[in-house]
Write a structure and sequence with these properties.
Pfam families: AAA_14, DUF4143. This is AAA+ ATPase domain-containing protein. A hairpin with a 2-residue loop joins strand 13 and strand 14. The protein has a six-stranded mixed β-sheet with strand order 9-10-11-12-14-13. A five-stranded parallel β-sheet has the order 2-3-4-1-5, with helices on both faces. The chain has a three-stranded antiparallel β-sheet with strand order 6-8-7. By secondary structure, the chain is an alpha/beta fold. Among the domains are: 148 residues, Rossmann fold; 86 residues, 3-Layer(aba) Sandwich (Trna Endonuclease, Chain: A, domain 1), CATH 3.40.1350. Helix 9 crosses helix 10. It contains 16 helices and 14 strands.
């Protein structure tokens, strides 16, 4: 329990500190954020991707009068649910209707206070939470029906080029493929930051949180996956390869790794939900720089990392993505709210040896879905192919629309 005077002093000093803090590169996500009084905005994403920075940018650029509290401030240790009454009094005294709560998960019962401010007082509220003690994806479960979630990823290619002051080109694409988009790593260039991030995700966000006793097996699984991005994986096969006792344990770890935002597991497209569940999944990582730093593959695997990068480009906008595999394979089948959006094949570099295979996979998917145009993304090549009224556009990654 803390006093009202101390709470007011902390809020004031935190606000003053923010005024002198550099905003850094303004995130593109700011353009799509609009607060409404009936729902809290929850900014979610992997640790170190810039959630708190985005919150501060939103505060300083659009809601400078809002009250801001970061609950990781040592002066707020011991803050309890009863102390929300004092915060409520401060808000009333200030005539405040906007509230920014950073790392709110450290306070037990915080959701009751937030719901009250939404239901009774029509507040605008923005929340972030650390994956360490409450996964940001789970914040919304405490505000069912009263929240809007905004996913935040590491820098996109456009943001990377702006941050690094690079022109869009095949060269900058290659740099982005290698370095990825974690802001702190791009500032320092120190790969140990990505090593530590990988370890923190496994140990703090998963092992401690979920009570995983066999940490070594979890680490072995994560290393295998990050060394094999854009490949098909299944619980049963990995049980044999990594000598797990049960397939169910592998699948359990899959869910933990996905909840911590480290990996995405996309299913094979099928109109049958059962077939989606039983077929192997394709695995992608949240960031290609994280792959570069932590993969134990002895080859550069440019093609698979490139596919991972293209996947992330579309995943930022479209959460529903599949792969297609019948006689041939098409890498990405992308759905939006209104249905199928795009069929995408990915090839780092087209050559006489792979051209037919890449085209056949896309032709087959286009005919299956009766989609007249498809997309083949390369590092730097540009071309087009037409067959029986179907058109494949070949474009380099740096020309993909944002």
């Amino acid at each position: 329990m803390i006093s009202k005077d101390l709470l007011q002093e902390v809020a004031l000093s935190q606000k003053e500190n923010l005024q002198g803090r550099s905003l850094g590169l303004l995130r593109n996500e700011l353009n799509s954020i609009s607060l409404i009084q009936s729902h809290a905005l929850i900014i979610s994403g992997i640790r170190r991707c810039g959630k708190s920075t985005l919150l501060i940018q939103l505060l300083k650029n659009q809601y400078p009068e809002a009250l801001y509290l970061n609950f990781e401030d040592p002066r707020l240790y011991g803050f309890s649910v009863e102390d929300f009454q004092k915060l409520d009094k401060i808000l009333t005294d200030q005539g405040q209707t906007s509230l920014f709560l950073d790392e709110i998960q450290v306070v037990e019962g915080w959701e009751r206070f937030v719901r009250q401010k939404l239901d009774l007082d029509n507040f605008r509220i923005v929340i972030t939470g650390s994956n360490a003690s409450l996964l940001s994806k789970e914040l919304g479960t405490k505000l069912t029906g009263r929240h809007i979630s905004k996913e935040l990823f590491p820098f996109s290619y456009d943001q990377f080029c702006e941050f690094q002051k690079l022109e869009k080109s095949s060269n900058s694409t290659s740099e982005y493929l290698s370095l990825g988009g974690f802001p702190e790593y791009l500032k320092t260039g120190r790969p140990e930051l990505l090593h530590q991030l990988f370890d923190d995700l496994l140990l703090r966000d998963i092992a401690i949180r979920y009570g995983v006793r066999d940490v070594k097996s979890l680490q072995n699984l994560a290393i295998y996956l990050i060394s094999n991005v854009a490949k098909l994986v299944s619980g049963n096969n990995l049980r044999k390869i990594l000598e797990f006792k049960a397939t169910s344990t592998v699948m359990e770890y899959f869910s933990y790794l996905e909840e911590s935002w480290l990996f995405f597991f996309i299913p094979k497209f099928s109109y049958s939900q059962r077939k989606q569940l039983i077929n192997a999944k394709k695995v992608y990582s949240i960031d290609t720089g994280l792959v570069t730093a932590n993969s134990r593959s002895f080859s550069e695997d440019l093609g698979r990392r490139f596919e991972n990068m293209v996947f992330l480009h579309f995943r930022r906008t479209y959460p529903e993505i599949y792969y297609f595999s019948e006689k041939n394979e098409c890498d990405l089948v992308i759905f939006g709210r209104q249905g199928l959006v795009e069929l995408v094949q990915v090839c780092y570099e087209l050559n006489p040896e792979n051209l037919k295979r890449e085209l056949d996979g896309l032709w087959e998917a286009m005919k299956f879905f009766d989609k007249k145009e498809g997309l083949l993304v390369t590092l730097g090549q540009e071309d087009s192919f037409e067959q029986h009224g179907y058109l494949i556009n070949v474009i380099p990654f740096h020309k993909l629309s944002s």
